[in-house]
Design goal:
By secondary structure, this protein is mostly helical. The chain has one domain: Four Helix Bundle (Hemerythrin (Met), subunit A) (Up-down Bundle). Helices cover 82% and strands 0% of the residues. The longest helix is centred in the C-terminal third of the chain and has 42 residues.
Length: 199
């Protein structure tokens, strides 16, 4: 889709796209709360809410037929920016185990580079896979969990959050890396399709 096409696409101005833009706009607020004000609970709640909106905009797009070509690009970009910003900020803050933060960042870096390389090669865009979305959503809940664990005193509530956080973290990482492996054959097929289209 070209720039003029996007400008005249009625699907650009949709509620799901507005929610995705809102997620992007809230990233600086999250960083300010965590790194500027050291308000771990507020930052954790905001990050969890932003992660939950990823499911909300997808539901609205499907339920009310508000999907768009712009949304197919904007939504994963917003997810990626939020996840990278969250992991980096928590590493700087020291709330997340280093190995968890690095695994999140490494996976996002590889996917981002691969997406840019495919676009540069002129291959068709690969649609987001449900397993990748599930992994991202789980990590979006794991990262706020680590913030809350740092902020809460020992208690039953903290123990429950500890269990939930690690379930989301391990499950999210497993799903995310599984999704990354699934993208390999899809990327190869996209490149083959491009070559065949130019034969």
């Amino acid at each position: 889709m070209t720039v003029p096409d996007i400008a005249h696409d009625r699907g650009v101005w949709t509620i799901p796209n507005a929610i995705s833009l809102g997620r992007l706009a809230c990233v600086p607020l999250f960083l300010w709360l965590l790194l500027g004000e050291d308000r771990l609970v507020a930052a954790g709640i905001l990050l969890a809410v932003l992660g939950a909106t990823d499911w909300v905009d997808g539901y609205i797009a499907r339920r009310f037929d508000q999907g768009s070509e712009v949304g197919k690009v904007l939504d994963p970009v917003a997810d990626r920016v939020l996840l990278i910003a969250g992991a980096l900020a928590l590493l700087v803050d020291g709330s997340v185990p280093v190995w968890v933060g690095l695994l999140v960042l490494n996976r996002e870096a590889v996917i981002s580079i691969a997406s840019l390389a495919l676009a540069w090669a002129g291959a068709r865009r690969i649609d987001v896979q449900w397993v990748g979305k599930a992994g991202t959503l789980a990590l979006m809940f794991a990262l706020p969990g680590f913030l809350l664990l740092d902020a809460l005193e020992p208690s039953l509530l903290r123990d429950l959050i500890w269990v939930a956080t690690w379930l989301f973290a391990i499950g999210g990482l497993a799903l995310s890396y599984y999704a990354a492996m699934r993208y390999v054959p899809l990327a190869r097929q996209a490149l083959r399709d491009r070559k065949e289209a130019h034969v």
